[in-house]
Amino acid sequence: MLSTDEILQAMSEQGLRITDQRKTLAKLFGETSGYLSAKDVYKHMECKYSGLSFDTVYRNLRVMEELGVLEQIVFEDGIKFKSSCSQDHHHHHMICLQCQKTYPISFCPMNMTDTPEQFRVVKHKFEVFGYCRECEEAASELKTAAHSEEEH
Ligand SMILES: [Zn+2]
Ligand SMILES: [Zn+2]
Ligand SMILES: [Zn+2]
């Protein structure tokens, strides 16, 4: 996952002006291991910058995603963002539905996809959802506990 400094460095290397708001965004994502919705980010930013519009925040998220410092994943309850796992290495994700821990995977199914000749691919997404071992174990412990209570 990119740190605050790595996010800032990547943004300025790509010619993005580092405003105070963008610094705050970089810090927020550099220090958050999970995913944040645009609304979460807006709530965080709103306290610091009064009168800030949701559109401005959203536009910044888009720009940061386009530069590759943020990654966006579509969850069932909407789009969420997190700091990129790595900026220069093409990868996909396995994501825990419970704790949202993300495991980057280097396997890319694009190579195995037959693309029609009349189609030009510009980008693709591949995400796998499941449960990490910790969440799986916690869930089965709960089940066992519920079960033994039933027996009494
Ligand atoms: Zn990633
Ligand atoms: Zn988990
Ligand atoms: Zn790929």
What does this molecule look like?
- The protein is an alpha+beta fold.
- It folds into 2 domains: 1-89, Winged helix-like DNA-binding domain superfamily/Winged helix DNA-binding domain (Arc Repressor Mutant, subunit A), CATH 1.10.10; 90-152, Dna Ligase, domain 1, CATH 3.30.1490.
- Helices cover 42% and strands 18% of the residues.
- The chain has helices at residues 4-13, 20-30, 38-48, 54-66, 133-151; strands at residues 36-37, 70-75, 78-83, 92-96, 102-105, 127-130.
- It has a 3-stranded antiparallel β-sheet with strand order 1-3-2.
- Helix 1 packs across helix 2.
- The longest helix has 19 residues, at 133-151.
- It is globular and about 65 Å long.
- The mean pLDDT is 92.
- It binds zinc ion (ZN) (3 copies).
- One zinc ion (ZN) is lined by residues 71, 84-85, 91, 93, 104.
Topology of this protein?
Elements: H1 4-13, H2 20-30, E1 36-37, H3 38-48, H4 54-66, E2 70-75, E3 78-83, E4 92-96, E5 102-105, E6 127-130, H5 133-151
Parallel strand pairs: 4-6
Antiparallel strand pairs: 1-3, 2-3, 4-5
Family: Belongs to the Fur family.
Organism: Paenibacillus stellifer
Main location: cytoplasm
Quickly describe the structure.
This protein is an alpha+beta fold. Helices cover 42% and strands 18% of the residues. It starts with a helix and ends with a helix.
What labels describe this entry?
152 residues; alpha+beta; Arc Repressor Mutant, subunit A; Dna Ligase, domain 1; 2 domains; 3-stranded antiparallel β-sheet; 3-stranded mixed β-sheet; 5 helices; 42% helix; binds zinc ion; DNA-binding transcription factor activity; iron
